[in-house]
Amino acid sequence: MNAPQTLIALPLALAALALTGCNRNTAIGNDREAQIDHAPTPAPVMRAAAALENVAPALIKPETMSFADLAVLRPLAGDCAVRLTEVAFPSFVYTPGAAGTIKLNGKLVRLPATDEMRFSDQGLTVTLRPGQERGDAGLGEIDMIVVPPDADQETGYSGFNDCNIGESG
Fold first, then answer.
1. Considering only Cβ atoms within 10 Å of each terminal Cβ, which end of the chain, N or C, has fewer?
2. Residue 51: exposed, middle, or buried by beta-carbon count in 10 A (0-12, 13-18, 19+)?
3. Using an 8 Å Cβ cutoff, are 39 and 68 in contact?
C-alpha cells in the first residue's frame, strides 16, 4: 500500500473501530443479556423541587419507567398508566383524583391530585386529557400535558391510557 492509500485507509479504519460500540441500545424495554447486564436499579423517589433542581424547564421530559421503578412504587403506583406507545412501559402512573407519579430526569416524582385528571406539586403540573380514539391494541388515547416549575410554556405528549396495569405490567 502506498502512502496516499494509507492516509485514506487509516481514518476509515479508526471510524469503523469507533462505531463498533454504537449498536447497543440500553433504553428501558429493549432486550438485554441477563447474564451480562446488571438488573436495573429503581430511580429515587423525590419531591418535584429536588428532582428538577438546576434543570432548565425546556430539558424536562417524561421518561419510561422500568420494572424496578414500578416495584418501588407498589402499592402506591396507581390504577392507571400513561404509555407513550401502546407497548411501552409507563411514563406516568396514577389513580384518578388521588395521586400520580411521573419519571423525570431519572427520578420518580410523586404528585397529589388537584382534580380528577390534574396532578401538581411544587410548581410541577401534569394534566391528562382523554381522547376519543383507540389504538390498535385497544388502549384509549390520552394527552399528557407537563408544565415544569418556571416554564414559559407547557409540553404535551400523546400516548395511551392503560387502566389494567396490574395485569400487563
1. N
2. buried
3. yes
